[in-house]
User: What shape does this take?
Amino acid sequence: MERSQKEKQLAARRAQHHHHLQQTGQLFSGLLCLNVVLLGTAVICSMIFNSAVTLHEVGILLAICKIISLLWFLYYMASAMQRPWAVNFQDTHAGSIWVRGSLVLFGGFTICLNVFRVGYSVSHLECKEQLELVLPFIEMVFIGVQTWVLWKHAKDCAQVQTNITRCGLMLSLATNLLLWILAVTNDSMHLEIEEHLFSEKLAGNITNSSQCMCPSGTLCDVFQKGFLMLYPFRTEYCLICCTVLFVMWKNVGRSLTHHASLPRHAVPFRMQGAIFGPLLGALAMVAGVFVFVLFQIQASGSSIALWYFTLYYAFYVAILLLMSLACLTGLVIHELEERELDMVENPTRSLDVALLLGMPIGQMAIAYFSLVAIMASRSHEQFSDLLLAYSLLVVLQHVLQNLFIIGDLHRQPLWETAPRSPDALKPEVELNEGHSLMDLGQNLRRLSTAYLQSYSNLNWKRRMLKEVSFFLILCNITLWVMPAFGIHPEFKNGLEKDFYGYHAWFTIVNFGLPLGVFYRMHSVGTLVEVYLGA
Assistant: This one.
């Protein structure tokens, strides 16, 4: 009896010692990441505020971080291949297919961006340094290897060399975060220079005699436009990498129980249980594309007519209002449902919640600054009322959507207790077996009948949750595309720029909008989980 008691005490001490070592390793690696980020941010800010630090010197610092991270990625892959027992557990909540898919998509576009960057530099060899040809190649190799490692090992819970693994993950996270900071600030500087050049051209103070200008229609112009078009993908890629690396860091040394390893999103995505949500969402997407194209065509000219601002903000007011009502409907259904809460520790869900709470700060800050400018300047512009309604609805919609998504993420998915019947898959299999047009028509009718039957078999609360979540998915995709690839009306309308000054408002917009774009993209992934779990 005494021996058994001593063994229990010894096991408890070992567990306590292991927990202490784990906390120490997390603290050290976290401090390493913090110091690298602070150093890099100081260098980037020095480049912005003082010409003594150049963009090339910043590029050299980041190239060193990329090379070190690249070497660690290669070491991690070699270690995982040589010692399969190094990863005893897989966190199935981490690295969902849409997260890894977006990682590959944005990583591929970022590599293409660097190809355009090299082409643009080659077109201006007399104006560019040779270093500008080397740095893109380093970044392409880094992105390729990093994307492959994160695709293969996003679910890993490493159990050996935990401190080295934590430090490697944090260094890679810091590198991606610095790349995002540089991408945002460098894009801001480019747009600022472009705005000044445009103003000076209108005033007749500048000519086209510059040797480094790209004539329209040339290959150089294609490289330049391709670089600018793909630039938003770079910022999104860096943020996605940061989220995946953070979850991997949290999972280092983690031991999972069988229940904790059950995935929330184990069911494949299928169009089931929603009819009106996809239809309304598709209409919103079509309307958004129409408004987006009209505004972009008008913005390519010398000035933007007031009517186009009115149309743009009217669309935003309408879609934000509908999304707010949809979120309210979802919250009411949550109160009517009797679903158990999921209290199991889940780093992926904790990170999802933190991102949902943190990322809207950028867009909401822009909205509040706009509110102050509208109220204080007492502008009598025709679209100022629309801008006021837009700013208020931005805040309201973010709050309601976060309440709806976070509330659902902490509830047990219904498909875990009521899985689909295998018979539901028969129409899909038969659809692939049909060869003639008559068989195809029959199979389509069977598939439609099966879909309607599955829709009618759900209770009204589950149907409404699926309708709401699907509608919000399509709306968030629309609100992701428009600011990511368009000219920002927040800066072009002139109201806030005149109130706060050019440089202050430009800084607010260019730091707030990337966070808002990432929030919309991240919301799509979490809303897919809400849809599947309803």
Residues 205-209, 258-267, 416-435 have pLDDT under 50 and may be disordered.
